[in-house]
């Protein structure tokens, strides 16, 4: 597959990178941040972002078992702890918006595992990766591309 276009305004790229970096810092858990970004990218079928964030997750020490089972995290038993499961459930709810909103029980579960500021950063991270996914998928940027 070849890209439809690699054109992206540098100010847009810079702004999205800044928001993503701030959200990761505020969340304070680099491994979890990568799991969230990978899960959203799986749901959005973004090969470019999957390729990038799988590599970053490995650099952060995320286990291969977690990476292998992420697509089936709900069935993976205790591979994912309660905090990770809450973050992944919130990621799916925000990414898919099946019912047109994030269900109260999903948000409330996340709120039991994250302080208010952490939760705000987690939501910003989910929104940012969804934006990146849509930009990359719409432009058909292939995995591993150096021009984007």
TrEMBL record:
- The Carboxymuconolactone decarboxylase-like domain covers 20-92
Q: Which InterPro entries match?
A: AhpD-like (IPR029032), AhpD_core (IPR004675), CMD-like (IPR003779)
Q: Which SUPFAM superfamilies match?
A: AhpD-like
Instruction: Specify the species.
Output: Streptomyces salinarius
User: What is this protein's name?
Assistant: Carboxymuconolactone decarboxylase family protein
Concerning Gene3D superfamilies, the annotation shows: AhpD-like
């Amino acid at each position: 597959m070849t890209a439809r276009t690699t054109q992206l305004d540098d100010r847009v790229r810079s702004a999205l990178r800044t928001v993503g970096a701030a959200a990761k810092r505020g969340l304070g858990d680099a491994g979890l941040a990568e799991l969230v970004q990978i899960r959203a990218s799986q749901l959005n079928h973004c090969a470019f972002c999957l390729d990038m964030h799988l590599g970053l997750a490995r650099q952060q020490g995320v286990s291969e078992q977690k990476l292998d089972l992420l697509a089936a995290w709900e069935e993976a038993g205790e591979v994912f702890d309660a905090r990770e499961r809450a973050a992944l459930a919130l990621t799916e709810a925000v990414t898919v918006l099946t019912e047109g909103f994030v269900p109260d029980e999903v948000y409330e579960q996340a709120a039991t595992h994250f302080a208010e500021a952490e939760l705000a950063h987690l939501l910003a991270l989910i929104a940012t990766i969804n934006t990146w996914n849509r930009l990359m998928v719409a432009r058909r940027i292939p995995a591993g591309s150096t021009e984007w």
